[in-house]
């Protein structure tokens, strides 16, 4: 099967890993962050960290839009869903994300809210008496589809369709991680380079990372999601560090270009504009890091239609999802991981989302940790 079996060749992966081990300078520690949760899952699923030499470390980054969505926005969505005239349409992984006071969309649905995981435009067309709100979320990857839905609703002249927009942008988040000058030393995440996101980059291209790489002197290698994609990207990063370069390189040439998808970019620019600021879980308020509907499409903006007034809400103080998203901690460092927090009883979004670091570690990595712990005890 083209582009599947070829990129899962274990022998070739071990060969590339051996090259990494040869070229990684002894006595030097390399620390690379994979921004995307798809890469985190690939690294965990295929045991890529086990192939790497001890001085090459991978750090999990923000991961996915579900993970970085703050509790307050989930609360806002629940309040919308509880309105008797509203049907809220959303993605499945958002249903179980914990909100404040132990609430969730799943519990709201059980309490009688009309929440569905179906096409919002079709529902609005079929049920004109309902106010259908699409809980839109995603990085640049899913933003074009939301733009197309809004355009379709306008052409159909639907007056009962609106969007609760939570689309966020990747480059500002990378900047927030790299810009550590004003942070206390204990909160700084010092990385040597990034494995750049794949699907995001099919839309925006590689060009938006060039300025960041130059400004912070950190290389970026955009990579696909297969295991050979990831190990090749790590080798490319090691070589850049060794050569003192801070370039943006494209490993994922079969899908990504420098300019990206210009048609998708035009659709986004037509309907959306930048928010002045937006809160990210783990990263706080980031300027110009999210999108909202332009005034010309205000009739489809759920925040304006329903006068949504954000209410500040704090994360569960025991959950360390925020530190995991910033790369300060690994999932197993959280005292809740594997005890009260599991996929069946998630305490934070990182355990709920299929791209979350905690979910990846639960599925693929926790047994490796146990094996290491047993080996240490056996040597004691």
What does this protein look like?
This protein is an alpha/beta fold. Helix content is 41%, strand content 16%. It has one domain (1-367): 3-Layer(aba) Sandwich (Rossmann fold). The strands form four sheets. It has a five-stranded parallel beta sheet. Strand 11 and strand 12 form a beta hairpin. Helix 1 (10-23) packs parallel to helix 12 (227-243). The longest helix is centred in the last third of the chain and has 23 residues, at 357-379. The chain is globular. The N and C termini lie far apart (48 Å). The relative contact order is 0.16.
The biggest beta sheet is recorded as:
5 strands, parallel
How many domains?
Answer: 1
CATH class: Alpha Beta
DSSP helix fraction: 40-55%
CATH A-level architecture = 3-Layer(aba) Sandwich
Unreliable spans: 370-380
Question: Would you tell me the structural class of the helices and strands?
Answer: alpha/beta
What's the total count of β strands? Answer: 13
Rg value: 21 Å
CATH superfamily: HypD, alpha/beta domain 2
Query: Which geometry do the CA atoms define?
Result: globular
Mean pLDDT: 91
Q: Determine the oligomeric state from the structure.
A: single chain
Under CATH, the topology is which?
Rossmann fold
End-to-end CA span: 48 Å
Q: Major sheet: order of its strands?
A: 2-1-7-8-9
How many helices? The count is 17
Order of helices and strands: HEHHEHHEHEHEHEHEHHEHEHEEEEHHHH
Strand content: 15-25%
